[in-house]
Design a protein that fits this description.
Layout: H1 2-29, H2 32-40, E1 45-51, E2 54-58, E3 61-64, E4 70-71, E5 76-79, E6 85-90, E7 95-98, E8 102-106, E9 121-131, E10 138-142, E11 145-150, E12 153-159, E13 162-169, E14 172-176, E15 185-187, E16 192-195, E17 202-204, H3 209-214, E18 238-242, H4 245-252, H5 256-261, H6 263-266, H7 273-281, H8 290-293, H9 308-312
Parallel strand pairs: 9-10
Antiparallel strand pairs: 1-4, 1-6, 2-3, 2-5, 3-18, 5-8, 6-7, 7-9, 8-9, 9-12, 10-11, 11-14, 12-13, 13-16, 14-15, 16-17
Length: about 325
């Protein structure tokens, strides 16, 4: 009886050990590229609520987002319309609400000049409400600011080189990037900052009425988490086709650090006549594509040297 019990007890342990050994061997055998791809495919969170139409750009493909779809690093989300709304819930319990006409990229690998912070999001344009989970500290970027140390709630609007931010609850640090050399500003709970990119940022103790009136109505309510509803469900976004130049144009013409971060993912699209035509027409806005569009042709194969028979004729 004792021997039988020991056999039943040890069998699962031995099986688990074999599985662990196989997993370790599998990881060791992966190339650096495969390890990077595995990390990229790890879900960061999901779309838990969606009103209106939203597009996902992932690698070279374009998808229509749906509720429950998981999100990965480098994903680009475009929420259109005048009344669109989306709630993203992250694995640590944090959430980000997107307002209409908003474009973001998740955890992008920005080039060296913009890697001073580990940004969870890059805001190209539009409205965000970030609610950090207890114990977490958020950082995010845009072409006009770097935000760090967010531990509660903040509402952000960004358009071009200007923007506004309301520290709805908790403190945060924000550094406008223009004009160059602008110092970071600490916002305490209730504080408000506006910047234009050409002058000194303006700090106020409370948000003005005009800003509060423009905040998307959906931002005004504290929404309950819906992540548990989708747990265990493999919900896929609907593939719409290949990314077109028009789909990617705003990102192709963004600041240099963002353009370089997305160069490799779309390099293969240069073979598409439509995509290539768009790149060529606006090459001054993304000069890093010149080396791809005008890559030197492979050298012609050398002619075969004359054999002994040919030499014999002379």
């Amino acid at each position: 009886m004792h021997s039988l019990f020991a056999t039943r007890l040890c069998a699962p342990i031995a099986l688990a050990a074999r599985h662990a050994a196989c997993l370790l061997l599998f990881l060791v055998c992966l190339t650096p590229t495969q390890l990077t791809q595995a990390a990229q495919s790890t879900p960061l969170g999901l779309v838990s609520l969606l009103e209106g139409d939203a597009v996902l750009l992932r690698d070279n493909a374009k998808f229509a987002l749906v509720e429950g779809a998981s999100l990965q690093r480098d994903d680009i989300i475009e929420l259109g319309g005048k009344k669109g709304f989306m709630l993203l819930e992250f694995t640590d319990g944090s959430s980000v609400a997107l307002g209409p006409a908003t474009s973001v990229q998740l955890a992008p690998r920005l080039s060296a000049e913009r890697t001073k912070i580990e940004a969870r999001l890059y805001l190209l344009q539009g409205w965000l409400k970030v609610s950090a989970a207890k114990g977490s500290s958020w950082a995010l970027s845009s072409s006009s600011f770097d935000l760090t140390g967010l531990t509660q709630d903040a509402v952000i609007f960004s358009q071009g080189n200007s923007g506004q931010i309301f520290a709805e609850a908790g403190d945060l640090n924000l550094r406008p990037l223009l004009p160059a050399g602008t110092a970071a500003v600490k916002l305490t709970s209730g504080g408000f900052l506006t910047w234009s990119g050409s002058g000194k940022p303006e700090l106020a103790q409370r948000a003005p009425a005009g800003f509060l009136q423009n905040i998307p109505k959906a931002f005004q309510d504290k929404l309950p988490s819906r992540a548990a509803f989708f747990k265990g469900k493999d919900i896929k976004p609907n593939r719409l086709g290949e990314v077109s130049y028009a789909d990617a144009q705003a990102w192709l013409n963004a600041e240099p650090a963002v353009r370089k971060a997305n160069l490799n993912r779309w390099k293969a699209l240069a073979r598409s006549p439509e995509f290539r035509k768009g790149l060529l027409a606006d090459i001054k806005s993304h000069p890093e594509w010149e080396s791809i569009l005008f890559a030197p042709q492979a050298a012609s194969a050398p002619q075969k040297s004359a054999g002994p028979e040919a030499a014999a004729k002379y």
